[in-house]
Specification:
Helices cover 0% and strands 71% of the residues. Strands 1, 2, 3, 4, 5, 6, 7, 8, 9, 10, 11, 12 and 13 form a 13-stranded antiparallel sheet that branches. It is mainly beta.
Length: 191
């Protein structure tokens, strides 16, 4: 079935093969795009993706302004990625209407999977914030391993860590967690 859309999209995707690895370069400009349940006022994308069908590395930038998806509003968002060998350093800064999101991390290939180093995570609104207290690492192979990750959330905290695989050895310590943090993502909850 066809979906009605209006607006301007100018995009190019260039695919290439390097030694059996699928790569892509994506460039796009979007203006006043409207589709059912989503709209984008402006977007600009210039990304090189290596190993598209595996654990990719990214290099480039994407900017979005005045976007909504199913009622969620993104005033501005900027994703920057810098390729470093088989890893990518990634930052994301976004104004989500009711909150600001800042993320800084690294995606890297490891034997049998990938690893994510989260150096910074902060989701902050007028009255409440959630912050990563120290860098955290997640490794995904045949199991998922989360090194101890700790967040402060308002006056409370959440610490998680362990392994998820054939056996479950995962722990979470939640202390004075304010449920109002959900309002940062879904403002209409009114918690």
């Amino acid at each position: 079935a066809l979906t009605e859309a209006s607006g301007f999209v100018n995009a190019a995707v260039t695919l290439s093969d390097t030694g059996g690895t699928q790569n892509a370069r994506v460039t796009a400009t979007v203006r006043e795009l409207n589709v059912p349940n989503a709209s984008v006022g402006f977007a600009s994308v210039n990304l090189a993706i290596e190993n598209l069908m595996g654990i990719p590395t990214l290099d480039g930038q994407a900017d979005i302004r005045a976007a909504t998806v199913s009622g969620y509003e993104v005033r501005t968002a900027t994703l920057s990625a810098t390729r470093d060998g088989t890893a990518s350093d990634i930052t994301l800064d976004a104004d989500l209407n009711q909150a600001r999101l800042a993320l800084d991390g690294r995606l890297a290939r490891v034997d049998g999977g990938f690893g994510v180093l989260l150096r910074q995570f902060q989701l902050a609104g007028d009255a409440l914030a959630a912050r990563l207290t120290a860098p955290a690492t997640v490794t995904v192979t045949d199991t998922i391993v989360v090194d101890s990750a700790a967040l402060t959330v308002g006056e409370g905290s959440v610490t998680v860590g362990g392994e998820i695989g054939e056996q479950l050895d995962f722990r979470a310590d939640i202390n004075a967690f304010p449920v109002a943090v959900a309002n940062l993502v879904v403002p209409d909850l009114g918690l």
